[in-house]
Amino acid sequence: MASLYSANVLFPSLLFSSSSSSSVVTPLAYRPYDTSPAKINRRLSSSFSSAALPFDLSPPPIDHDLLDTMTIAGAKVSEDGVIGTFDNDEEALDAVENGVAVVDLSHYGRIRVSGEDRVQFLHNQSTANFEILHEGQGCDTVFVTPTARTIDIAHAWVMKTAITLVVSPVTRERITHMLKKYIFFADKVEIQDITEQTSLFIMEALSLADIVGQPYGSHKHYNVNGMPITVGVGNIISEEGYSLLMSPAAAESVWKAIIGHGAIPMGSNAWETLRILQGRPTPGKELTDEFNVLEANLWNAVSLNKGCYKGQETISRLVTYDGIKQRLWGIRVSSPVEPGSTISVNGKKVGKVTSFTTGKRASQPLGLGYIKRKAASEGDSVIIGDDVEGTVVEVPFLALSISSAQKSTNFSATCPLDFGYVLRAPWSSSNCKVLNSTPQLSNGSAIPTSSKGQCCQNLLSLFGVAMAQHLKETSLFQLPNLETSASCIQEFQSKLNSLSLPSNLTSFCFDPIQFVNTPYICASIQTIQDWDRKLGNSTVLNSGCRSDLEDLTACDGCVAAGFRVQQQLIAIDGNASHSTDCFYFTILYAAGIVNEFGPESTGAMSCIFSIDLKKDGSSSKRHLALIFGLAGAGMAVLCMSLVLGLYIWWNKRWRKNDDVEMESTVSRRRMRPNTSVWFKFQELERATDSFSQKNFIGRGGFGVVYKGTLADGTNVAVKKIIESDFQGNDEFCNEVDIISNLKHRNLVSLRGVV
């Protein structure tokens, strides 16, 4: 059989013309199927194209000769056009190790994402960090649900004007529909299913990836005798091998050239065997709504420090609080088992089998399955079903993620913050002491929502003291990455543990991503230099917050200055939903940069951070006069409140029959503390045409979303809560609070509730 050493050997009659010989590319090398010592070392001349796809997508497939060629060669074709086998499965699997195998995966989905905002769009919709990739590079990325349950792992190629995704056949339509659904009005993005307009071949040569010298996902475009082909490093199930993307019109000629020079054709049956032996999870088996992306061990395809994306909050919490309860493993078994069979250790069920293959020549029976982390790991013995013995083993595809998982869960990053003041400062922790690992107090009653909120606010302010000092020392408002943030949260919790406070307080109150540096909150400010460019070298904070803030008058002036600067930042940012972040940045700047006494001073902690500090006796005497004065003023306010209350009661009683329009007008003026408005239900019914199906946008957490138009012409999105999804007013308020504080350039701010 002919040797296969370089890509030009595959296409001897289709090589580039001599006019393009000035551009030379290192040959794509493979081990020869024939062990002849003769070596072919010719160079490939290329005509490199930087187009998004190097062939025209407009013509429909017109060449059906490939299927005829495969059928003549012995291919068994299913009703949906997929090649099951060439009656050579064992030979094809041998060729993977000893030569070259080629498989037609044109039934896999190809999705083209184009438009000016394509990178940011995919960055927000999947787990990989697309912003660090350049043209000619690629990666794996996972599409997940909002709770990080797995949909599919896609192979992505970043091209000049588009990103091409290769997805599983069973998720092609779902992912295409999902991506289209999440395009916002202002997004310049186009989603196109190009599966029928392209062909995809995979070439397997697993043992010689080191010869290639190019990173996984790298790809180039070649023009072979007028037939454009994109060649990429990697083949969906491993980093070894190559992917060939081309026009259907070129597919038959390319296939013949590959087979004509010694490659062994492989059908989908052998490909499935290879998938399991490699340990690559697939939708419907390992990737389902039952398992999250980290349980599937897809760490290599997940970025932990890129900022906001779908499923990010769940993923960061899983990492920070060690919430990964099970893991996908390979299981070497003594005899065949069925997918779905239970996995047991010492008679106790600890997992289940998801896939199984007998391997090459039925000599390598191997299953894939999820096993509880504390029950078994590599090398441990398990029982499958009733009596089949098995051993937990690592498999190549999943092994790629081991180092990433260890780095992410061990938090090798060192926290740069000093939390010593948590033990020194006399802060009041009473609101936090009632919280524990269950949502109830010791007497069985529910923990008041107010206690949770007050405790979390106290802890955020307390954490902010260290962040202000960090700002002073580094000029950075936030921490550099998610690992550092998670490490600091753990260290902060350790200080709280020393005060005999509940060990899960930070899991109640913090999300590690909220302390990570990002340009997408508060006027793109990340450093003091950014602050100065936006606001100038001096603001009202510099005069209002410099002195000792234990003086109440000075404190009032500082707080007022803080609100003025916050409003300036919101005006610069243009997004009112960033108001909380801008206020937090204002606090950090006032305490860390402006105040002469520093963030750990009593004045800064009590005034700027509003931390409730325990007062000693002398402090009480010093403020005794103030207390009496405030008490007198309080009585006056109480009297005025009673009069006002009587007036409101009378007004409601005698004007309750006013028309709905008047009530709606009044309701729009009732602002909630987060600047949102209480609307009347009738207003939103009119805005959405009684929640008409034609205005349906999609379903989100806890409800269905409709587009609508308010009476003043404002376009809005209206989420109609599904009552069965809620557990009362507390959960509704929590949903409103979450929406109010969502921060993303493609999200609109909350206008109001009803």
TrEMBL record:
Protein's UniProt keywords contain Aminoacyl-tRNA synthetase: no
Look up the EC number in the record and give it.
2.7.11.1
Single Gene Ontology MF annotation:
protein serine/threonine kinase activity
Q: Which reaction does it catalyse?
A: L-threonyl-[protein] + ATP = O-phospho-L-threonyl-[protein] + ADP + H(+); L-seryl-[protein] + ATP = O-phospho-L-seryl-[protein] + ADP + H(+)
Where does the chain cross the membrane? 624-650
The UniProt record lists the Protein kinase domain at 691-754
Tell me the enzyme class. transferase
Q: Report which superkingdom the organism of origin falls in.
A: Eukaryota
Q: Where in the cell is it found?
A: Cell membrane
Where is ATP bound in this sequence? Answer: 720
Keyword annotations from UniProtKB, A to Z: ATP-binding, Cell membrane, Kinase, Membrane, Nucleotide-binding, Serine/threonine-protein kinase, Transferase, Transit peptide, Transmembrane, Transmembrane helix
Instruction: Give the membrane topology, semicolon-separated if more than one.
Output: Single-pass membrane protein
Q: Which SUPFAM superfamilies match?
A: Aminomethyltransferase beta-barrel domain, Folate-binding domain, Protein kinase-like (PK-like)
- PROSITE patterns listed in its UniProt record: PROTEIN_KINASE_ATP, PROTEIN_KINASE_DOM
| One matching Pfam family | GCV_T_C
* GO cellular component terms, A-Z: mitochondrion; plasma membrane
Q: Which family does it belong to?
A: Belongs to the GcvT family.
Protein's recorded name: non-specific serine/threonine protein kinase
Q: Which organism is it from?
A: Solanum commersonii
